[in-house]
Amino acid sequence: MAGATRRVGAETSATRAVIIEATNQLIRDEGYASVSTRRVAARAGLKPSLVHYYFPTTDDLLVEVSRQGAAQSDRMIEEALASEDPLRALWDFFIDTSRVAMALEFMALANHRPAVREYMAQHSEEMRARQVEILKRLLGDRLSRLEGFDAAGLSVVLAGIGRAIVMEHGLGVTTGHAEAIRIVEGWLDKLAP
């Protein structure tokens, strides 16, 4: 049957969730390069054909793992922005080192897997647009207190400094971190209502 669409397992399946969690564990424990259908199946206690039933290609699986990680980050950002002090909560999210290992793995993975890179870039653009919109709403005219900043620039600077601190922390590098955090805290003080 040429051209027939291959059946893929249900997104709500418990087996699918086990496959995704096994993939997360492999990436966390051994790095993204350890992910193969056979390795995921062994970790999940399944046959490799079952992994292919739910994810026809390794890229399909890796994009889904990335998508779920991004959705978790989105929820955390939304919680931060809904808090009593959304700007500081957003900053706390950006410098949270609890997700450093997975973040580094997915950045490296994106360099080698175009499908993952495409998904991550699209999601990042969408998230940045939401952050800019929310920062404009939250800060309004107060943003002019930081000379030369606008909402998009502030979003990139907060995320960029936070990302640098998180990535370097994962390497054991801390030089300049306290100073950078102090600079950002000063900006946040200037933006307070």
Automatic annotation (TrEMBL):
PROSITE patterns: HTH_TETR_2
Keyword Transcription regulation: yes
Chain residues forming the annotated DNA-binding region: 36-55
Protein name, entry field: Transcriptional regulator, TetR family
Key word Ribonucleoprotein present: no
Keywords: DNA-binding, Transcription, Transcription regulation
HTH tetR-type domain span: 13-73
Organism of origin: Novosphingobium panipatense
InterPro entries according to UniProt: Homeodomain-like_sf, HTH-type_TetR-like_transc_reg, HTH_TetR
Origin organism lineage: Bacteria, Pseudomonadati, Pseudomonadota, Alphaproteobacteria, Sphingomonadales
